[in-house]
Amino acid sequence: MVPNPLPRLARRLAQQRWVMRTAPLVVRAERLIRRASGGRKGVLDLAGLPSVEVTVPGRKTGIPRTTSLLYVPRGADFVVLGSNWGSPTHPAWSANLRAAQTASVRHKGEHFVVTVREITGVERKPYWDLAVEFWPGYAMEYERSGGRLFRIFELRRVCD
């Protein structure tokens, strides 16, 4: 079987500054594809990249909010970063996740609960290095954000 060339292409494209300007289009396409596939697929899935849908209550409203995210695999855990496409502000989902102890995850058609842990302090650098190695575009997004420290979260599946 021929390997999927799309993940390599996506990693290359993610390092191009002009790609950040396509964020609104990609977000709209993500919603459309998720809706059309009944939530089973999104833009990242089509590009052959690891994605997870995270649902967490809004920190102010308590209304569940779902966001599709690229994740960095770390063993059985999911590492997600609040890069917000290199924006100088944190994404809203990261504030909601920061306020939560658990979240609901949809991954490859399976639903389960995860614990949420924000990675800070001395523990942060190895996670950042892992993330940049996996998705080099994070380094460019960091520069584009003006040096904002992206929130990093580890999502760990709760055993039944």
From TrEMBL:
<dbReference type="InterPro" id="IPR004378">
    <property type="entry name" value="F420H2_quin_Rdtase"/>
</dbReference>
<dbReference type="InterPro" id="IPR012349">
    <property type="entry name" value="Split_barrel_FMN-bd"/>
</dbReference>
<comment type="similarity">
    <text>Belongs to the F420H(2)-dependent quinone reductase family.</text>
</comment>
<protein>
    <submittedName>
        <fullName>Nitroreductase</fullName>
    </submittedName>
</protein>
<dbReference type="Pfam" id="PF04075">
    <property type="entry name" value="F420H2_quin_red"/>
</dbReference>
